[in-house]
Amino acid sequence: MTPPGESPPEELPETLTPAPPSIRRLTQEQYRNSVRDVLGVEVQSPLEPDSASNGFLSVGAARTTISQRGVDLYETAAYEAAQAFVTETRASDGLGCQPGVAACLESSIARYGRLLWRRPMTEAELERYLGIAFQAQGALRDMWAGIEFAVAGMLQSPNFLFRAEIGSGETVAEGRAYDDFEMASRISFAICNTSPSDSLLDAAERGELTDDETLREHVESLVASDCARESVRSLFDEIIDLRQLPRMEKDESVYPQATETLGAALRESLLTTVERWVFEDALPYRDFYTRSEAAVNEEVAALYGVSVPDEPASYPSVDLDDRRGGLLTHGAVLARHSHGEATSPTLRGKFVRTFLLCQTIPPPPDDVGELPEPNADALTLRERLASHRENPACANCHALMDPIGLALENFDGVGAFRETENGVDIDASGELDGETYPDAIGLGQALSTHEDLADCFVRNLYRHTTGHIETPGERRTIMLLQRGFEEEQQITDLLVELVMSEGFRTVGEAE
Amino acid sequence: MTKRSLKRRTFLRGLLGGAAVTVSLPVLDIMLNENGDALAQDGTGLPKRFGVFYWGNGVQPSHWNPSSTGAGFTLSHALEPLGGVKPYINVVSGMNIMSGNERGHHDGTVGILSGAPMVSQDPMGANFSSTFSQPTIDQVVANHLSAGTPFRSIEYGIHDGVIRSEGSTIEYLSHNGSNDVNPPEYQPRALFNRLFGDGFVRPEETPEVDPRLALRRSVLDAVTADAAALRSRLGRVDQRRLDQHLEGIRALEARLALLDMPTERPPRASCDAPGTPAEHYPGDALVERNQVMSQIIAMALACDQTRVFSNMFSGSLSGTRYPGTHNGHHSLSHDEPGDRPQMASITRYIMERFAELLTALRDVSEGDSNLLERCVILASTDSSDSRTHSITDYPIVIAGRGGGRLRGDFHFRSGGQNASRALLSCLRALDIDAPSFGHAGGRVTEVCGEIMV
After folding, report:
1. Domains of chain B: which residue ranges?
2. Residues A283 and A412 grouped into a single domain
3. CB B390 to CB A366 under 8 A?
C-alpha cells in the first residue's frame, strides 16, 4: 500500500494513452431497464448472471461473455418481452399502422431496431429481420407475429446484448474517438444505466455528441434528470457492495432483529439517503462520512432507536442521535462487512481501505492461525485481535485494518448500537493514518478529511462507468478529474466532467 | 420376452408450418445384447459420464485421511457417510497441487479443477480477483463425451451464498477459459425446466406440434449473421468472447434441431423424466435442494440429455451456516480452535450430501449394472488444511468405476505426487486417450495407476 502523506506531489502527465476497447455485456439491470424503456415491458424471467471483477459488475461485464445457458435464458426472456410488447402495442395501436402492410412492418422494425441496437440498422440488417417477420407472418397466419419474431430476434442479437463501443469515430492524437452513436450509448448507460432515448439518438444523428459544446448541454440535462438517480444508486450499490445484503446470513440467536427483510431495508435506506444527499441537498462527498442522517422505514428506525417521521414519502429521512454519523455507521455498511454471528473490525477496516481509499491490503500469510475464544483475559474482540498485532507475520496488515474497524465496535453485526461486549465496556478508540479518534464519530471525521477519500471516489466512478480499472496511461484524465472534484465534491458535477473527459471519449488500439 | 426385430429408433413426424416433431421410444431390453450392456443392433456401448462435486473452505486433514490404505480400507470420520456406496469410492490422498499457491482458496480451486496456474487480476488499489487460465476438467471431458447430446454439460449448485467480489475463480466452478464461465442453476425447478421442460421429448408422449420451432431457428440464423458482421470489427480478445456467445447459439440451434428432425440418438431404457419439483426451495434448504437436484441429474444422465455435470455444493470463502455450528463456514475453517468439532461435522455433512448424489446415481439401473458404475466423479475442495490454505496432501475422492476402469473401495496414499495425476486418471477412466493433463507445474503425463484396473 501507499504510505500516506509522504509522496511528493505528482506531476500531470502531458498526454493520455487511452485504454483498449472492450465490448460490454449488458448487466441484468441494463437489460431490464433497456427493455422497459424501449418496449415498455418489465422482463421477469432470469437472465445471465452478472459477474464482478475487482469488485465491479461493470468490469466483469467487459471481461465475461455469454454462456450456453445464458443464450437459453436470453431466448426465453426475448420471447417473453416480445409477446408482451405485441399484446400491449396491438391493444393500444402503438405502431400507428397495421403490421400486415409491408411499409408499416419495415418502418416499425427499423424504429425498434434503432432503439434496441442504439444505432440505425444497416440495410442488410433491416432486410434480414424483415425476412424473419414475413416468414413468421406466413407460418403463423398472424400479421403481429412478424413484429414478435423480429423483436425477439433483435433482443437476442449481440448488437443488443453487447455494447460494441469500439471507437468508430475519427482518429485523434491519443487514439480513436467514439462516434456519435457510441457516445449516445456511453452517455446514457453512464448517467441513466439504460439505453439511449429516441431523442438522444436524434442528437447523435445530428452530430451533437462529438462536439464539446452541444455534448455538454446534453450531458448536463441528463445529469439533472431523474434517471441519473438510478446510476448513483447503482454506483453506491457497487462501491459498498450492497447487492448481496438482502440475502445476508445472520445468526438469529445472536441478532433477533435480523429478519428476512432487514438486509433489503438497510440497503434501501442507505441508497435512498445517498440519493437525497446527492440530488436534493448537494452534499459534498466528504460529508457523507459525517452527516448524521438516514432514510428509514419502521424496521431500520427500530434498529437505530429512532421513530419514523410522519411523512408520506417512502423511507423518510430522519436525524440520527449523536452516536451515529456518516455512512460508516449505517446498518448497511456495518452488517455487510461483518460475520454472521459477530462483528469483524478486520473486514470493516479492509472495506474502508480497499473500497473507500483505493489501497491494497496484501493477502493473509499462509499460516493464519487461530483467533482465541473469549476468555477471562480477552473478553472483547479488541483484546482478542491484539494477538494479531503482536504476531509480526500479521501485524503489518492488521495494523492497517483493525484500528479502523475497532472504532465501529459500538455497532454489532447488524448495526445496532451497544455499549458493552461480554459485559465489558467497549473501547472504540482508533487511528487512521496518523489521525487518532475516540469513537466512530471521530473515525468519520478523520475519513472525511483523508487525502485519498475523494481521489478514490473519482477512481471508483471512473471504473464503474468505463468498465475497466484505470490504466497508468489514463493517469492524466484521472488527475484532472480529481483536481476538479477536490474542492466542491459534487457528485453530479463529477459525472458531467467524467463524461466530458478525453479518457471517456477516446479509446486505444484493440488487444 | 419375444425376440423380434425392432427399429432402433421410431419416430412420429408431424408437419405443420415447416416444423417436425420427433418422439423417441425407450430402450427396451431386447435392444441390449446378451450381456445387457450394449445396444444390440450396432453394439454401441452405453456412454460413460463425468461429474465434479466441489465444496469451499477445505478440510481438517486429520478428520479426512483414512488411517488404512489399499483395498477395503477403513473410512475416516469425515468419509464415513460414503459407507453405503463404498464399492464405488476411490480415495486419493497425499498428492500436492503443484501449479502455485499465491493466494489462499484461489490457487487450490484452479489447481484441482484445471491442473493449471490461476490468472491473478490484481491492478492494485482495487479488490483482488482471479480467473482460470485453462478450461476446467469438466469442459475438457465434454470435448470428448458430449457430441450429439442436447447439453454439452450441466452446472448446478446447492448453497448460493457464494462470494461474488473476487472474480470468476471463486464465483463459478465450470470454466471454458479465462473469464469464460458456465454459471450454475441453484433452483431445482430451473434445472428441471432446462433439462426436462420445453425441448424435452418424453418417450411415451406425442408432443404438440410447434410451428414456432422453425421460426426460432431462423431467428438464431439471423443472430449468427449479426455476430459475424460484428466480429469483423473487433480485436482478438473480444472476438474470442463473441465466439463463445456464438457457440451457445449453435448449441441452442442444435437442440431445436433435435426436435425438428430424426437423429441417430438411441433411446434409453432407464430414462424416466422426474416429476416437476417445487417452485422455490429456500436458500437454507440444502438437504432438500441437494436431494432433488441429485434425482434430476441422475435422470438427465439416464436420458442422455447430458453426459457431463458439475455441482458446486458451496463456494470458496463463503460463510455458509451449517446445522449445529455457531459460525459461518469460512470463519470456522480458520478460527475454530482445538480438535475442531464443528469443522468435522461440516465436512461430514457435505459428504452426506455427496453420498446422496452417488446413491441417486447407483439407484438407476442401466444395462447389467447402474449409472454410477459408468460414472467418474471427481470430488474435492479449495485447499487441504483450511487453517493454513495449504495445498499439499490434497483431499480427493474419485467416485464411480468408469465402466470398470477404476478399482473402487480403495485408498491410495501417495508420497507427494502431482495432484493432476488424479485428473488424468479421470480422463483415462473415461477412455479419453489424453497423453497429458495440466499446464506449467500442474502438467503430468502419468496417471495414478494404483486406483486403475
Report:
1. 48-205+269-451
2. yes
3. yes
Reply yes or no on whether the pLDDT at B64 is more than 50: yes
Q: Which three cell numbers stand for residue B119?
A: 490468472
Amino acid (one-letter) located at A398: H
B126 and chain A: CB distance < 8 Å anywhere? yes
- Cα three-residue angle A41-A46-A48, rounded to 5 degrees: 110
Helix (H, G, I), strand (E, B) or coil at A144: helix
Classify residue B354 as exposed, middle or buried by CB count within 10 Å of its CB (0-12, 13-18, 19+).
buried
Neighbours of A282 (CB within 10 A): 13
**What is the H or E stretch that residue A389 is in?**
helix A381-390
Work out whether strand B129-132 and strand B180-181 pair parallel, antiparallel, or are unpaired: unpaired
Residue A351 has pLDDT above 70, yes or no: yes
> Phi/psi of residue B166, each to 5°?
-120, 25
pLDDT tens sequence across A212-262: 999 999 999 999 999 999 889 999 999 898 988 998 888 888 999 999 999
- The C-alpha of A295 sits at a distance from chain B's nearest C-alpha, in angstroms, of 27
Q: Does B227 touch chain A (CB under 8 A)?
A: yes
At A423, list the grid cell: 459485559
Q: Using one digit for the tens of pLDDT, what is the confidence trace for B393-440? A: 999 999 999 999 999 999 999 999 999 999 999 999 999 999 999 999
Q: Please name the residue that has the C-alpha cell 468498465.
A: A467
**Interface ipTM:** 0.92
- Tens of pLDDT, residue by residue over A269-289, are 999 999 999 999 999 999 999
The number of domains in chain A is: 2
pLDDT band at A371 (very low <50, low <70, confident <90, very high): low
Distance CA A95, CA A100 (A): 12
CATH superfamily label, B48-205+269-451: Alkaline Phosphatase, subunit A (3.40.720.10)
- Coil/strand/helix, residue B141: helix
Quick one: A59 and A156 in the same domain?
Answer: yes
Distance from CA of A245 to the nearest CA of B (A): 11
**Residue A76 is part of which domain span?**
24-163
| Sign for the pseudo-dihedral over CA of B414, B415, B419, B423 | negative
- Pairing, β B308-312 against β B49-55: parallel
Interchain pair B252, A72: CB under 8 A: yes
* A276 domain residue, yes or no: yes
- Dmax (CA) of chain A: 85
Spell out the alpha helix ranges (H) of A118-253: 123-140, 143-156, 158-161, 180-192, 198-205, 212-224, 227-239
